[in-house]
Design a protein that fits this description.
single chain, 391 residues, alpha+beta, seven-stranded mixed sheet, six-stranded mixed sheet, 12 helices, 37% helix
């Protein structure tokens, strides 16, 4: 459970000097944050499976847009921490070079949480971006494997030496500036590797082709290093920027290589756009052994579905029913007097700005995805051994 010291009334601090992360929070901000946390905790209890001691592990992926950029409210960092705390292990994308917000989130999460991150990307179009893994040390621990996968080819070397075309230059960015980040973890007697990805964005056919080449490089690197990954279980996860109309062939490449998707996540929208712009950008693909399973739930018709999903965080916080509580913050965020005045006078414009821009920069324009892994396969293991011993 996160630490909520900042949300205490002033009288509590007269009795004891509680450590605070945001001593500048006003009473109004505290009350708004408390109300949001209560709603958010209720949502998470409904949407995410509970932890079961030594039986399950909850893993997630979330593109927290530009985490570290200035301007996030203390309240938003509390909401992010609350969401992260619902899981045991989270792959995060779009971490900036500024770790101050991440460090504040870790202070809220408490001393049993740690993070691992890679070096920020550099160069044109990279946004100084890095990725990270956050994990609960009571539930999971690193195996020691961590690093950026070497994704390279002779074709790319030639592109650098001789100028190359635009696509090859983009692939060198994938290899050198935003490489896949692989890390190993263990829980009980399960060992697995996670590969944190943020593939080429864009809905055009040429951008989908770049993603195809990125996937080909990734699969080749995984194949080349299969003996060094310390585990037969590998999960590819992150913001893959897949478009339903463009990336069917790219997804099939992963399937053909032995990576499958959880049916609990299949084709579920993870961005905040509506209508035809709704997409399943954020994905998980699994290539795992016999004793590595996603938990299943029996449906009313007797069928089973794997446990996982997308968390609709804006149903609880910073949704359409809450925007007027942030009217002053929306006004303050506009950088000219004319725009600030418009936000005061035109409530429809203020609401649109809040819904389409402000809240995305406070939380994210992506939604978290998750699955529940079974970690206790003792019965299946013993039954298989008994069958083989008696055969």
């Amino acid at each position: 459970m996160p630490f909520y010291n900042d949300l205490r009334p002033a009288s509590d601090f007269e009795e004891r000097d509680f450590e605070q992360v945001f001593p500048e929070m006003t009473e109004r901000e505290k009350l708004r944050c408390i109300a949001g946390l209560i709603r958010l905790r209720g949502l998470l209890a409904e949407e995410v499976r509970p932890r079961r001691t030594e039986q399950n592990l909850l893993i997630a992926s979330w593109n927290i847009a530009n985490l570290g950029d200035a301007g996030r409210l203390p309240e938003a960092l509390y909401y992010i921490a609350e969401i992260l705390a619902a899981f045991d292990l989270i792959a995060v994308q779009e971490l900036t070079a500024n770790l101050s917000d991440l460090d504040k989130i870790m202070r809220i999460l408490g001393p049993n949480w740690r993070y691992i991150y890679n070096d920020p990307a550099r160069g044109p179009g990279s946004n100084d971006e890095s990725s990270a893994y956050l994990y609960n040390t009571d539930r999971v621990r690193p195996t020691g494997l961590t690093g950026e996968l070497s994704v390279w080819s002779d074709e790319m070397s030639d592109a650098i030496a001789h100028g190359g075309d635009a696509e090859l230059q983009t692939l060198t960015r994938f290899a050198a500036q935003r490489p896949p980040y692989i890390t190993g973890f263990t829980t009980r007697w399960k060992r697995f590797s996670l590969v944190n990805l943020h593939l080429q964005p864009g809905k055009d056919s040429d951008e989908a082709e770049i993603r195809r080449k990125e996937i080909a490089l990734l699969l080749q690197a995984l194949d080349d290093n299969a003996d060094q990954r310390w585990a037969e279980n590998t999960i590819l996860m992150g913001d893959m920027n897949f478009y339903a109309a463009r990336d069917g062939e790219n997804i099939e490449m992963l399937h053909q290589a032995g990576y499958w998707e959880s049916d609990g996540l299949l084709n579920k929208q993870t961005n905040l756009a509506t209508g035809r712009r709704a997409e399943a950008y954020d994905r998980m693909f699994f290539s795992v052994g016999e004793y590595f399973r996603i938990a299943k739930q029996v449906q009313a018709d007797g069928s089973t579905v794997e446990q996982g999903g997308v968390v609709p965080i804006y149903d609880a916080v910073m949704g359409p029913d809450h925007w007027q509580h942030y009217h002053q913050e929306v006004i303050d965020k506009r950088d000219t007097a004319a725009l600030q005045q418009k936000m005061r006078d035109d409530l429809d414009a203020a609401e649109e700005y809040f819904m389409r821009h402000y809240r995305w920069r406070q939380l994210s324009d992506h939604l978290p995805i998750w699955v529940e892994l079974e970690t206790d396969d003792t019965r299946a293991f013993l039954e298989r051994n008994a069958e083989e011993l008696t055969s």
